[in-house]
Amino acid sequence: MNLTDVYFKDLFENTSDLIQYVSLEGEIEMVNPAWLLNLGYALEEVKGKSIYEFIDPAEADTYKTYRDACINHQNRDDLEITFIAKGMIPVILEGHLRPFFHENKFLHTRGVFRNITVKKEKEKLQQEHLLKFSQFLENAPDAVVIIDEQQIIVEWNLKASEIFGYSRKEVINQQLAAFIIPIEYREAHHRGLRHFLATGEGPVLNKTIEVPAIDKSNREFPINLNISSVKLQDQWFFIAFMNDISEKKKNEQILRQKDLELEKTKLEDAQKMDFLTIASHELKTPLTSMKAYVQLALREIETRPTEQVINLLRKADSFSDKLNKLILNLLDISKIQSGKLRVEKQPTDITSLVRDVVNSSQLLYTSHIISFRSDKDYIINIDRSRIEQVFVNLINNAVKYSPKADKVEIEIKQKQDFIYISVKDYGTGIESINQTKVFEKFYRVDELSKNDTQSLGIGLYISSEIVKQHGGKIWVENNNSGGATFFVVLPVNV
Nearest CA to 207 among 240, 185, 160, 176? Predict the structure, then answer.
């Protein structure tokens, strides 16, 4: 035996591949030990037998067609075929057949195969796992989208189609950002992915966060997003679980609104209780004082000079005016609530009206200089007594809430079709958060009301309603130099 024969014998007997020699008629001439070992037969059990006795009957035609093509010198790719091992156990082989000729005479086909049964079982299990995973994705309660490192969509489940409006066919192998990420957030998305690929750090990974998204109709809505990453064959994939929370956010907003309304109701109830307490006290005080002064006057008229009695009656009259004003304010509140507050407009010199209020107030409040400025007389349609009521209240507040100042400034001017009247004081001012609240019913600003225990918190509310009835506006702004300015704007032609 020469060296070549030795090498061939060693290869034939010790290779892990299955080698077979089969005659033209299909009879097994020789097989190697690996063939016998993998299929569980002894050589005498197979030699001289038809190869087709060891092939799965369902694949016999496939094998024959492949073998005939090889014999006829037709190039064929590798063949995957199922052999039947001893005990009727299927064994999957993969390999090829080649014809063997000697002196132009066909002798047999040589087959070289390898056992891929274990590999195929693993692939089958993997396919089953993939199928289960695919079924999980398809039936998941959340939208599930998988992208690769290039942000290409490789998986898109049914819920994702339902939420975002795109079918799987429309988005697979497309860039994710172009479909569900609002334009203004796309660069941040790209930047975050680049950072992860460069550093392995992802601040939003494995966390549930709330982000905006868009659907096929370009509707923007909030979603909950949770992203996890996995590396397969040296490539990162990102699995995003998403759900539409717009309805949840809407319900939360409704609940918050209800909570706010409840708090507002509680506050209004508390304000009403404060109002009733103050009002009952305020109604009781002038009545008690009036009665006391009248009794003193009656007693003193017999024993005291007439001048003393006159002073007592004057004080009683003062308390009577105060009580009358309080009752009128309460009546105004009632009219406003019932929608019966009416104004009777007629052409009136608003400049003269405000000037008269300023002059009367100056006599009453000697602690302040109340200045008035207007470039001309303005005639507009207003209810004189009601507008007078507004400015009496504003000037009264300006003096009351600027005890450390000594001046109040009133100015009238026209801008286009509106008359602007401003009442400026140099007091404590009003915090911006309270500048709209001061016009609410029963509202009393803390920093002001602590010095005014008798205020009912209704003067500005009534003034606001009167101005509204005139088609105007009223608001307050803080001055740069301190204090506040109330503005009343009335239309010229109404």
Answer: 240
Whether residue 99 contacts residue 70, with contact meaning beta carbons closer than 8 Å, is answered with yes
Are 357 and 465 members of one domain? yes
Residues 289 and 365 in one domain: no
Query: Chain-centre distance of CA 366, in angstroms?
Result: 57
Q: What are phi and psi of 96, to 5 degrees?
A: -145, 160
Non-local (6+) Cβ contacts of 334 within 8 A are none
Q: CA of 28: how far to CAs of 69, 71, 227, 288, in Å?
A: 19, 16, 59, 132
Q: Pull the structure tokens for residue 83.
A: 């052999």
Q: How far is it, in rounded angstroms, from Cα 188 to Cα 190?
A: 6
Assess whether 268 and 297 both reside in one domain.
Answer: yes
Of the chain, the percentage scoring pLDDT greater than 70 comes to 79
Average pLDDT over residues 194-204: 86
Rounded Cα distance between 373 and 485, Å, is 15
Two tokens at 195? 């950072």
Domain boundary among 69, 99, 115: 115
Name the one residue in this structure whose structure tokens are 């009632």: 334
CA-based radius of gyration for the chain: 50
What's 26's domain CATH number? 3.30.450.20
Q: Is 460 helix (H, G, I), strand (E, B) or coil?
A: helix
Domain that holds residue 471: 346-491
**Residue that terminates a domain, selected from 317, 338, 359:** 338
Are 20 and 149 contained in the same domain?
no
Distances (CA, A) of 445 to 266, 278, 299, 434, 457: 17, 15, 43, 7, 9
pLDDT in tens, 230-240: 887 778 888 88
Closest-CA residue to 402 (of 344, 296, 487, 485)? 485
What single-letter amino acid sits at 376? Answer: K
Cα separation of 110 and 249, whole Å?
72
